Amino acid sequence: MATVSPKRASRIYDVLGRTYDLAERFEGRAKERGLDLLEVQPGHRVLEVGPGTGRVLQHLAGVVGSEGLAVGIDLSPVMARLSRDRAGVPVVVGDARALPFADRSFDRIFCSYVLDLIAPAEFPTVLSEFFRVLRPGGVLVNVSLTEGTTGPSRAFVAAWKALYRVSPTLCAGCRPIRLRDAAGAAGFDPVTAETIVEWAVPSEIVTATRPNRREA
């Protein structure tokens, strides 16, 4: 299934702007579970990839406090501005395929409904960037639209794929993915995955740790 280009994805989310908060009714529980698994603590350095309107980034900034750091990066200039204004922390315009951060900069990375815009062939590039900027022992939590696990969620995904084939833009560029195996192949260990279905919309939550071991 073809994916949208970074330029087109940026335009889609520039247009969506604040209306993207409406997606919370379908994504809220999965994001909350992802944040529980992220286990952010005061003093942590946290990166959110694709913060959207800044709802989650604002929460992360409050948890890490003045001794920590919360940073966002978004492909869409409009979303970057919205999240910066809401969360009151640095948000840069950039691409997850080439993160503008030094090696081992963060204790945690949170990414939700971003990689389902990216072609599976590019997962290794993105995940290697996540691995690079995480400290040993650091944790990545990724939340994405995924394949259905129940009758209603399978029906939803089938309809979503049909609509995507007609117009990826109407689907905001997103299509269902599975990321667990790709995260393991990128060097994360352990990697776990679970699925939450909300209003028939299935979301996969992958938790992946950069091993805390010496590198050759």
How does this model look, in words?
The chain has helices at residues 6-16, 24-38, 55-64, 77-87, 123-133, 151-166, 180-185, and strands spanning 45-49, 69-74, 91-93, 106-112, 134-145, 191-198, 201-209. The chain is 37% helix and 23% strand. It has 216 residues and is an alpha/beta fold. It has one domain: Rossmann fold, CATH 3.40.50. A seven-stranded mixed sheet has the order 3-2-1-4-5-7-6. The chain is built from seven helices and seven strands; from the N terminus they run ααβαβαββαβααββ.
How far from one another are the termini?
A: 38 Å
- Overall structural class, as computed from helix and strand content, comes to alpha/beta
Taking all Cα atoms into account, the compactness measure Rg is 16 Å
Number of helices: 7
What's the helical proportion of residues?
Answer: 25-40%
Beta strand count: 7
Strand content: 15-25%
Instruction: Please indicate the count of domains.
Output: 1
* Low-confidence residue ranges: none
Strand order within the widest beta sheet = 3-2-1-4-5-7-6
The major sheet is characterized as: 7 strands, mixed
> How would you sum up the global shape?
globular
List SSEs in N-to-C order. HHEHEHEEHEHHEE
CATH topology title: Rossmann fold
Mean of pLDDT: 87
CATH superfamily: Vaccinia Virus protein VP39
Reading off the top of the CATH hierarchy, the class is best stated as Alpha Beta
CATH architectural name: 3-Layer(aba) Sandwich
